[in-house]
Amino acid sequence: MNRKEIENLLFENNDEEVLDDEIHDIMSANATNINNEGYKAQIDFILKEYGEEVGLERIKEIINENG
Questions:
Q1: pLDDT tens, position by position, for the chain (67 residues)?
Q2: How far apart are CA 52 and CA 63, in angstroms?
Q3: Among 22, 40, 55, 63, who pairs with 50 as Cys (CB 3.0-4.6 Å)?
Q4: Residue 67: what pLDDT?
Q5: 10: exposed, middle or buried (C-beta count within 10 Å: 0-12, 13-18, 19+)?
Q6: Cα–Cα distance between 62 and 56 in angstroms, integer?
Q7: pLDDT attached to residue 16
């Protein structure tokens, strides 16, 4: 079964949530790996996700909240 066939099957069955648990598992494993690599990897990830300006502001907010 190829990607398009899978997409059609999910669409026909109106089952857009069937892959949710798998996505959560993958993202959780990624988060664990980033956290285990330490604060530099965490900073890199946050900056990549939010962009430099917003990421730095968010990091400052988190530090102040946990101060």
A1: 999 999 999 999 988 899 999 999 999 999 999 999 999 999 999 999 999 999 999 999 999 999 8
A2: 16
A3: 55
A4: 80
A5: middle
A6: 10
A7: 83
Which of 58, 61, 40 is CA-nearest to residue 49? 58
Sequence spans of domains, the chain: 1-36, 38-67
Q: Name the pTM for this structure.
A: 0.76
- For residue 64, CA distances in Å to 7, 39, 42, 43, 58 come to 44, 16, 17, 15, 10
Burial 29-65 (b: 16+ CB within 10 A, else e): eeeeeeeeeeeeeeeebbbeeeeeeebeeebeeeeee
